[in-house]
Amino acid sequence: MSVPESFQYIHLxxxxxxxxxxxxFESVANPLSGxxxxxxxxxxxQDDVGEFCWEGSEExxxxxxxxxxxxxxxxxxxxxxxxxxxxxxxxxxxxxxxAGVFIGLIxxxxxPIAAIVGGLIAxxxxxxxxxxxxxxxxxxKVVAPVVKKYWNVDDVRLLVQR
Length: 162
Prior knowledge:
This protein is α+β, with helices and mostly antiparallel strands.
């Protein structure tokens, strides 16, 4: 089965379709993403996911999330959900911050201006890199194995076709 690049959902209050693709499609298709609302492109209403159904289904997106999430034990949900993601982002950010401070201290040997300017640049850059690395690690080493183990797919976009 090939991975769909886009999909449509129906906004139940207005009855119109919205097509989503790319990262937005991946986020809405992934029950672990914690998405609670989405947007209807037709009427412009931001609504609870319980007000939308995937095209070709009478199941709301909220019910779709529930059906899939109950298959995962609570401990795994905590690790692979928003809480787990926040932990990885925090760890990455703190590690990057610490590395930036360390570089600032080393630059202190060149003088106070070099320490302040170089340290600030290092802190900002390495904190951002740390957060990004934490997110990438989380997606690859935490979320992907949970998706494969409990839903037997390599890409969450395949779940909307079930």
